[in-house]
Q: What sequence folds into this?
């Protein structure tokens, strides 16, 4: 899949339950949607839907969060702790498809 560019920033929408994020085909319908993942009772990262609208998902692990041993060498991101309008660092490269940032709750093109 070729790299895409966003024509404008996309709002990161926090969704909680599966009913909030799934369409009739059980696919995520909201570009830029995200939800938190816990491991051992602590926030460990977030799953997000690519902001371009392709509906593909990615997982971003939070730096310093607990993680399974098999994930020890995988990348991680600094999270500012804001649940509603998060900022992550460094940038997000979504499977060689989209590259940008999550800043104050907005997905922006790199």
A:
């Amino acid at each position: 899949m070729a790299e895409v560019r966003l024509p404008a920033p996309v709002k990161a929408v926090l969704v909680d339950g599966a009913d909030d994020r799934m369409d009739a085909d059980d696919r995520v319908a909201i570009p830029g949607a995200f939800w938190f993942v816990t491991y051992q009772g602590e926030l460990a990262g977030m799953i997000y839907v690519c902001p371009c609208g392709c509906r593909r998902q990615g997982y971003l692990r939070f730096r310093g969060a607990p993680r399974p041993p098999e994930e020890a060498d995988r990348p991680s991101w600094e999270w500012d702790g804001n649940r509603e309008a998060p900022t992550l660092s460094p940038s997000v490269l979504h499977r060689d498809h989209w590259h940008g940032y999550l800043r104050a709750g907005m997905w922006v093109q790199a």
Observations:
- The chain has one domain: 10-109.
